[in-house]
């Protein structure tokens, strides 16, 4: 077994919203797992900050509860948990008031990395940035981590970028998109840019179309208030699906370096054509299987917010001329399955008579749940049956490689937080990228609003609305099964 943990510098990480849902479910359990893996240097500290008047002991007890709930049992090591909890300090603080800021300042140490994680409602991002600056807490060593949603349209995203830029340089701002922290997403870049095999075929001449699917089985239970003002387009497409699209479509960056990668992603976003109304399908899950429908979850019976969206997207550049990218995402679907499927064109001339047995080559990049890559190729059906064709997958799943590594693969949040500490922005969105993504998304949403568009109802546990099937059928193509 090999340990591949890369050491990081000593750090102070302040989590604004340290008692909130995201901190409890993802950030703190993730940090514990990094501690367990030996990646948190001695003397590093985690400081929780929220309005609640808690003592250190009370916050530690809450964090212990979060670890018990959200870390797999086999990773719950009593000694390690005790050691981790000792690193935690809590400061009652009001992002909009004066409470707590002087105490936070006193706690800050010189010459260690300072990271401030804004795990609070987006309306507080500007207040926190302002107060960090006013109290002289943020110095050149400091970084801020900004959660999603980064605005709800171009205007608000611009305003937020401006507020943050008053106090921090772009090199200090880490805008999280947790999809970029997923293992397979990074593997996608390795497969594309560390092999000669794919690049010559990676263009309109050889690729028929690309499908990007992020299907969820969960509904919006408990998050209805946020989600109803957002919908799948803002919640998933503008950020996560857009990032996946960029990584598939971008030109090779000159180096695996934050700005080189982000420059190439930005070019893709700017090259996206406006989407026509007939190329978009919106859906909303109905009640079914004893579960309430979207409208009940959102506590808004008249809601027109989409919990599903499918669209056909085109990129206006040489490489992708005429290649459709079909994107879909939705809640309460048949299975939790996220994947990118790149379907190649037919060979120019068929020499085998078995036309029925023939299928296109497809590269499937599977993000979750069973991450890996499969390249579907044609072979001869084994046996004496003559020259019959069959499709088989070349399996590039990572299970074997992972078994060689002694510790678990960090989840997206763990990896991204450690990247913040290392000062590596490659997997974070730059301000201009986010704005360009909104500039493309805004007209789509404005179109729905101006037409008072109603999403089509779909059955929970299904593959989404009927019209989404038509989106591909009319082009003579089919969605891959969600499984
Ligand atoms: N939860 C999730 O799964 C995800 C969340 N996000 C984003 O993460 C952020 C946090 O979300 P989530 O954890 O769900 O939110 P919660 O409402 O669960 O938590 C909010 C946190 O902020 C604190 N807080 C609220 N007001 C103030 C204030 N004035 N000053 C200081 N602290 C304050 C709260 O504590 P107190 O009330 O005691 O002050 C609490 O700790 C949001 O931007 C959200 O969009 C992104 C992706 C997923
Ligand atoms: O950002 C979000 O992502 C989750 C899906 O993330 P995953 O890692 O579980 O695929 C989604 O449920 C949520 O609505 C959205 O805000």
UniProtKB/TrEMBL annotation:
Task: Provide the residue positions that the database annotates as binding NADP(+).
Answer: 17-24, 51, 148
- State which pathway it belongs to: Carbohydrate degradation; pentose phosphate pathway; D-ribulose 5-phosphate from D-glucose 6-phosphate (oxidative stage): step 1/3
Q: Does the keyword Transmembrane helix apply?
A: no
The entry's keywords: Carbohydrate metabolism, Glucose metabolism, NADP, Oxidoreductase
- Chain sites annotated for binding substrate: 178, 182, 216, 235, 331
Q: What are the Glucose-6-phosphate dehydrogenase C-terminal domain coordinates in residue numbering?
A: 189-480
Question: Where does the record place the Glucose-6-phosphate dehydrogenase NAD-binding domain?
Answer: 14-187
Annotated GO MF terms: glucose-6-phosphate dehydrogenase activity
Q: What are the catalytic residues?
A: 240
Function per UniProt: Catalyzes the oxidation of glucose 6-phosphate to 6-phosphogluconolactone.
The molecule here is called: Glucose-6-phosphate 1-dehydrogenase
